[in-house]
Amino acid sequence: MIQIQQTIVNNDFLAHSSLSKKQEKIFEALLKSQKTYVYKNKHQLLFEIILRDRIIDAAILLAKSKARFTIFRFSRCNEQIWTKNDLGGFQLKQGILPSDAINDIFINSQLYAFECATAIVIVFYKAVLDVIDKQKFNTLFSNLLLYDWHVDEDLGIKTKKGEDYLPGDCLYFKNPDFDPQTPQWQGENTIYLGNGLHYGHGIGIKTKEEIIDTLNRKRKRNATKSAYLLPQTTRVNFIYLSQFANSLENYRLPINHQYFITGALGSATFLHW
C-alpha cells in the first residue's frame, strides 16, 4: 500500500506520468505490498520507482559485463582509477571523479573482479548516478571505497527483516552447510529483478530455486541443511536521495533501456526489449 501524507494512493495516481511498463510494474508491486510505504509528496514516490528501475538496469548491465567473481584476496580493478588496498577493496584515486570511476567498472569491466557484496554496492552506486545530478553525486560520494558493505553514509543502506520483496531490493540467500574450504559460498547477495528472477554476482541471473540449487552444490560433505532465502531486504534510502534528483514528472527511460524480464527456462534467461 502507498500513502502520500494522509491519502491512500490507488492505481490511477500515476496515470498521467510517463512511466515505462517496467516502472509501472514496480508501482504495482508497491501498491500490492502488505506494508504501507509513506511519502511526503509525489516526487518521492516517483523517485523510488525510477531508482528501483535503474537498480534493475544496473544489475543486468553488470551481469552482461566482463567483470568476474573472485574473493577479496584476488580482486582486481583498473589501477588508473582505483588503488587496491590490503583488504582487497578499491579506493578512489585523487583527481578521479566518482562518477567516472563507477562508470569505468561498466566500460572497462574486463579489468575488474570482486565478490558479491561489492557487486551489490556497485549496482546501487551506478543506479543512483544514473538518476541524480552528476555534480551532486560527485559531492556526495567524493571519497569512494568499494569494499564489501563499507559504503558512504549518504547511500543510506539499511537491512530490515521481512518478506516484503520488491524489484530493486537486495536479498540474501544463506547457505548454512557451506564448505569451509570455500567460505565465499556461505551465501549469495542478489538484486531482485522482478518476475521471480535474481541477479547474483558469480551466479548470474537465475530463479530463486536455481540459486538455492547452485549454493547447495557448494556445501560441505554430508550436508543436511539446504540454502534458503533470508526474510530480509537491503535497500538504499530512497527518500533521502530523492532530494538530489531533478523534476521527475515526465521521466521515462530511453527506448534502448526498456528491457523487460520475462522469465527463465533452464539456464537461459529471456530479456525482451
Protein model, in words:
With 273 residues, this protein is α+β, with helices and mostly antiparallel strands. The chain has a domain at 2-156 and 237-272. The chain contains 7 helices and 17 strands. A 5-stranded antiparallel beta sheet has the order 13-12-11-10-14, sandwiched between helices. Strands 2-1-3 form a 3-stranded mixed beta sheet, covered by helices on one side. It has a 3-stranded antiparallel beta sheet with strand order 5-6-8. Helix 1 (21-32) packs across helix 2 (42-64) and helix 3 (98-107) packs across helix 4 (116-131). The chain is globular, with a radius of gyration of 19 Å. The model is unreliable at 253-273 (pLDDT under 50).
